[in-house]
Amino acid sequence: MVSRLRKAMLLLVALLLVVGAGWAAAQAVDPRMSDDDVRGMREQAARQAGEDFLSRYVESDGRVVRRDEGGDVVSEGQAYGMLIAAALGDEPRFRAIWDWTRTHLRRPDGLLSWRWADGRVTDPSSATDADLDAARSLLLAARRFAAPELAEDGKRLGADVLRGETVTVGAAPSPAMARPGLITVAGNWATAPPHAVDPGYFSRRAERELLDASADRRWLDVSRTQRVLVWQLIGTASLPPDWASVDPAGRAVPTGPPDGGPTRFGLDAARLPIRFAESCDPADRAVAVSLRRVVAASRDIPATRNLDGSAAGEWQHPVALVSAAATDHAAGDREAGAARLDQASALQQRYPTYFGAAWVALGRIMLDTSLLGECA
């Protein structure tokens, strides 16, 4: 019996290897393929990655569960699920995720509580990246599903972000900031100076969507000021940090995370090149291009780096590979970017995680497709 079971397992492993090899071969770009064929192939890979995330991590009631992180729910994950569902045109799953989110996470000020576990909110503080991603997804879903009520929800959430998660910096005379401007801070808890900022939260496309939907020109100010901050941070080191502290004059200084830890370019900051590379503004893409020589310097991309670019450990994570792919894409080297996205997918398949699955899907969608909207 044991021998038969062992043979069956070996046969299954062999079959999976053959299927995996066939899938990898299917992703290779044949030089005889037309541009439309290549785009179609890459869109299919993005759709498959999105479906993999939704199938693995979204419950029928709309919870996006971090299965490898204790089984909790965070606003970030809900927003990722909404973005992916909207991109794939999956209206039932989008509505389930949004209905659960607004029922269980929405705060009295309209922002989203960060963490829910064991049937209740366990951390009511907001996280700005989740609020921005959720607002963006609502505006996209409103167009895709012909649902104007979702657009109202998105505009309302964007207005709540401006009210509860932005501050003005640069009011005092300072060489750091040419003129005062708005920035988004890490959450409602970071509005007192010095302000805690996570540069990986800056979402250029969300800011643009909210500007177009609301005609509130403060979103232009947010985008301009945050780009200044990012250049400041890159100017003090080779890479932007996971976290920074910004004083009222607009001076940005790299710091460790609020709960302690080293000052590094890690999984939080790895999202910055992705978000800037997908921007429709060439000035934003230039930021991602400037990071390429360090972020995409080798095939073996470390998960975390010191701010001078040196590896801070030997382990790898799909998000770091997607980040490198983003700098390739921003520089116009789409073939190199596609190869790194395939590497990220392969690593995610070997070591599946919630965060890796989300950013493999989002990376493919944001960089290789127009599923989240075209640039004008």
Automatic annotation (TrEMBL):
Pfam family, one: Glyco_hydro_8
InterPro entries assigned to the protein according to its UniProt record, in alphabetical order: 6-hairpin_glycosidase_sf, 6hp_glycosidase-like_sf, Glyco_hydro_8
Keyword entries, A-Z: Glycosidase, Hydrolase, Signal
Regions that span the bilayer: none
Record-level Gene Ontology MF annotations: hydrolase activity, hydrolyzing O-glycosyl compounds
Gene3D superfamilies membership: 1.50.10.10
Signal peptide: 1-24
A GO biological process held by the record: carbohydrate metabolic process
The keyword Signal appears for this protein: yes
Similarity remark: Belongs to the glycosyl hydrolase 8 (cellulase D) family.
UniProt-recorded name of the protein: Glycoside hydrolase, family 8
